Each structure stands twice: as structure tokens, then as C-alpha cells.
TrEMBL record:
GO terms for molecular function: metal ion binding; oxidoreductase activity, acting on the CH-OH group of donors, NAD or NADP as acceptor. InterPro entries: CAD-like. The keyword Zinc applies. The lineage of its organism: Eukaryota, Viridiplantae, Streptophyta, Embryophyta, Tracheophyta. It comes from Quercus suber. Belongs to the zinc-containing alcohol dehydrogenase family. This is Cinnamyl alcohol dehydrogenase 1.
Amino acid sequence: MGSNRRKTITGSYVGSVKEIEEMLEFCKEKDLSSTIEVVKMDYVNKAIERVEKNDVRYKFVVNVSRSKLDQ
């Protein structure tokens, strides 16, 4: 197989506070956890470059707090 490996970038909206609490309680009951790498909006382009280079060990989570998303 060549070096043209497919990459997928996905996103999702966060559920309500109640849904998040239910999900966290479920994870606690089942002793589930995940390993993520939190990045800020100004790092997104670099994160995409890392995905392209296959230099990613964990799922990226973009922290959009205090971001100016409407500009």
C-alpha cells in the first residue's frame, strides 16, 4: 500500500449539561477513560499538518473557549 493513506477529520457538537453528566457517570461506572490532546484554535492548522504526517497519538480536541468564531 502506498503513502496515500486516508485521514478523517470530524467534529461534533457537545450535548446538554444533563447528557454530559450522564455520559461521565456511565464512564465512571464502567471505568472508561480516553486520552486526548487538547489544542487551541490557533493550533488547528498545525494539528492538521500532524495528522497528515501521521504524528498523532491521541484524539485532538479543539478548545474554542474565548475564540472569535463569528469573524
